[in-house]
């Protein structure tokens, strides 16, 4: 059970990409919400009695002081209770916890490599934006089953002026492992690695990164079931 839960209402919902939606959260009085850094996440509690909760990425490009926008996955054919998102519809009430911002290392002497999958692209886009604003070098790899399922592709492409942005679509497990390994090698030990996406995807990135960088330089932005964090 969390202390100081903030009650909110879902005021809008729209499609971001195939199987992915944006959900807008506001207080009933439309009061200003706590500020957050790009790349932050919030814990959303759908029912304060049974405390069904999940962690969602905040969309820095569309959120504003009086409204948070989160990215959610909604597959019509997704029957896996462990990966399925909480059902969220316009008019629903929920509770949220104060946003949690990821650690982003800003150092001109270090390089950053970012890996995104699914709604993790929202968190990674925020981190990349922070790096870009600070004039930091980075390389970003975004993975999706298809171009139609790529979340925030336009926003990521807008960062190409500041860093390398690469999209990878429809890769099987072997090709995914080869692509992420190639993106990471060779990496200097002080390189910063950021990843967000499905658990198996982040486990792969972490396992490969440990061959190259210090463990403290691996940053996983965990989403979904809070038990997994």
Molecular structure report:
- The chain is of the alpha/beta class.
- The chain folds into 2 domains: 6-96, Beta Barrel (Elongation Factor Tu (Ef-tu), domain 3); 112-228, Rossmann fold.
- The protein has 4 helices and 12 strands; from the N terminus they run E-E-E-E-E-E-E-H-E-H-E-H-E-H-E-E.
- Helix 3 crosses helix 4 (199-209).
- The two termini are 16 Å apart.
- Mean pLDDT is 89; it is low at 78-83.
Task: Supply the key terms.
229 residues, alpha/beta, Elongation Factor Tu (Ef-tu), domain 3, Rossmann fold, 2 domains, seven-stranded antiparallel sheet, five-stranded parallel sheet, 4 helices, 18% helix, globular, Riboflavin_synthase-like_b-brl, Oxidoreductase
């Amino acid at each position: 059970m969390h202390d100081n839960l903030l009650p909110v209402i879902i005021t809008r919902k729209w499609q971001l990409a195939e199987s992915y939606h944006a959900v807008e959260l506001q207080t009933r009085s439309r009061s200003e919400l706590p500020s957050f850094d790009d790349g932050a996440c919030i814990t959303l509690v759908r029912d304060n009695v049974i405390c069904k909760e999940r962690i969602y990425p905040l969309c820095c490009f569309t959120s504003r002081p009086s409204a948070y926008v989160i990215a959610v996955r909604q597959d019509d054919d997704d029957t896996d209770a462990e990966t399925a998102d909480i059902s969220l519809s316009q008019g629903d009430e929920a509770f949220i916890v104060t946003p949690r911002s990821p650690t982003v290392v800003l150092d001109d002497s270090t390089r950053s490599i970012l890996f995104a999958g699914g709604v993790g692209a929202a968190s990674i886009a925020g981190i990349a934006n922070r790096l870009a604003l600070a004039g930091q070098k980075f390389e970003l790899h975004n993975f999706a089953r298809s171009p139609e399922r790529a979340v925030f592709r336009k926003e990521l492409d807008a960062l190409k002026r500041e860093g390398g942005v690469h999209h990878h679509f429809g890769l099987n497990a072997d090709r995914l492992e080869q692509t992420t390994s190639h993106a990471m090698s060779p990496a200097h030990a002080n390189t910063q690695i950021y990843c967000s996406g499905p658990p198996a995807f982040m486990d792969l990135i972490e396992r490969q990164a440990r061959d190259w960088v210090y463990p403290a330089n691996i940053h996983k932005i965990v989403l979904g079931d809070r038990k997994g964090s």
